[in-house]
TrEMBL record:
The keyword Transmembrane helix appears for this protein: no
Protein's recorded name: Sigma-54 dependent transcriptional regulator
Ranges in coiled-coil conformation: none
Domain spans labelled Response regulatory: 6-120
Length: 456
């Protein structure tokens, strides 16, 4: 089974050691035996183990003492505690002390193997998370486009094209749905261009009154209008030598479209009320969520301006077309949100991630960030499905409500609710029954009984 199959079993009962050794060896584990906590510590000093089974009550050094010392020594392998004298207090103490799970004797061989398998899967997920974090760091360094996170083929190909475009001093039209990160891309293009040391300025063409837009873009001279007490440079002049990002370019009024076209053609601006033109050296990046070709056909956007802007078109793929990026994006955004709120970042449960992968994300990355921000505020140590926005729960919530509300029987409704909550708790903890019991606020034996009752 390779590295994931190196198993240490610690128990003072010879018959238990022999039984566990036979069962786990047949399952393919490479087994090392220890008869008390001291022998267990000596074993982990000699070699690495990927899984550890440890009895709770032992002479010389008991299971809880072994657990504490192992964690102090930096052992990160899942440690599963065993006891014939199980109490909920013991399970809680073991989990709080860093144990992965807690199982009670006598147990069946299948239960031990199932618990070990889930612990191995837990380790695999932890390693994947570490790999994702490293990938995020590598991607941010290698792409150099505003720290855009991507590993999907469609997005990596897009970023490769954008990187090439960044190095050529030409006008770019960035299109894409709202929330896809068009301004982030524009900043990345500027940072990778030969204008990177010069200003990057952004203006939202739909975010200010038409009467102010022209003076904002092109500036004005003293006396041009009431309140113009002195000459003022426009954004084009302020961005001299650098990059100007015109967001929501489709919102630009007709008069301003004419003047912008002249600026792109002549490379000079005429301030409002001015008699002379001023030369400018600015690279223009424009962005829109609209279909500008349709706007041209309808007569609301000038065709000649469209062609001037559309020298190099870059269409940012929506998130639903790059779902392979969602796990990486979640890791990146959760770290960002945790830093923003000054709190430790909760883990993302498998069940919550499954919902995020299933959603179509009409609001794209911005919607994903909002969903995770809500989850970080509501969650404690682990993000569960209920911490996500209701619209992400989808069919699962509908089915649950149908099961509960589709009957007048309180007993049937309660059973359906219990079944759904237990399944969600198991999904959220990766099948860890001890942690699921703590989430559900029921005892370990009660959880086992209900799982058997509901066929879980």
């Amino acid at each position: 089974m390779g590295e994931i199959g190196r198993l240490l079993i610690i128990d003072d009962e010879e018959t238990m050691l022999e039984m566990l050794s036979i069962v786990t060896s047949k399952a393919g584990y490479e087994v090392t035996l220890a008869r008390n906590g001291e022998e267990g510590l000596a074993a982990i000093e000699k070699g690495l183990f990927s899984l550890i089974l440890c009895d709770l009550k032992m002479p010389r050094l008991d299971g809880m003492a072994f657990l504490g010392k192992a964690r102090e020594q930096g052992v990160d392998a899942p440690i599963i505690m065993m006891s014939a004298y199980a109490a909920i207090e013991d399970a809680v103490a073991a989990i709080k002390g860093g144990a992965y799970d807690f199982i009670t004797k006598p147990f069946k061989a299948d239960e031990v193997l199932l618990t070990l398998g889930r612990a191995a899967e837990h380790m695999r997920l932890r390693r994947e998370n570490l790999l994702l974090r490293r990938q995020i760091d590598d991607l941010q360094v290698s792409q150099g486009l505003g720290g855009i996170i991507a590993q999907s083929p469609v997005m990596t190909a897009f970023l490769k094209t954008a990187s090439r475009v960044a190095q050529h001093d030409i006008t770019v039209l960035i299109t894409g749905e709202s929330g896809t990160g068009k301004e982030l891309l524009a900043r990345g293009i500027h940072a990778k261009s030969n204008r990177a040391q010069k200003p990057f300025l952004a203006v939202n063409c739909g975010g200010m009154p038409e009467t102010l837009l022209e003076s904002e873009l092109f500036g004005y001279v003293r006396g041009a209008f009431t309140g113009a007490e002195k000459d003022r440079k426009g954004i084009f002049q302020e961005a001299e030598g650098g990059t100007l990002f015109l967001d929501e370019i489709g919102e630009l009024p007709a008069d301003a479209q004419v003047k912008l076209l002249r600026v792109l053609q002549e490379r000079e601006v005429r301030p409002v009320g001015g008699a002379r033109t001023v030369p400018v050296d600015v690279r223009v990046l424009a962005a829109t969520a609209r279909d500008l070709q349709e706007e041209v056909r309808s007569g609301t956007f000038r065709e000649d301006l469209f062609f001037r802007l559309n020298v190099i078109p870059l269409h940012v793929p929506p998130l639903r077309e790059r779902k392979d990026d969602i796990p990486l994006l979640c890791m990146h955004l959760l770290a960002k949100i945790g830093k923003k709120f000054g709190k430790s970042v909760p883990e993302l449960s498998p069940a919550a991630l499954a919902l995020l992968l299933r959603h179509q994300w009409p609001g794209n990355v911005r919607e994903l960030e909002n969903a995770l921000e809500r989850a970080v505020v509501l969650a404690d140590k682990i993000i569960l499905p209920e911490h996500l926005p209701e619209n992400l729960l989808g069919q699962e919530s509908e089915n649950c409500l149908e099961g509960v509300l589709g009957t007048f029987s309180l007993k049937k409704g309660q059973r359906e609710m219990e079944r759904v909550l237990i399944r969600r708790a198991l999904d959220a903890t990766g099948g860890n029954k001890s942690k699921a019991g703590l989430l559900l606020e029921i005892s370990y034996p009660s959880l086992l009984s209900k799982m058997k009752e509901y066929g879980l």
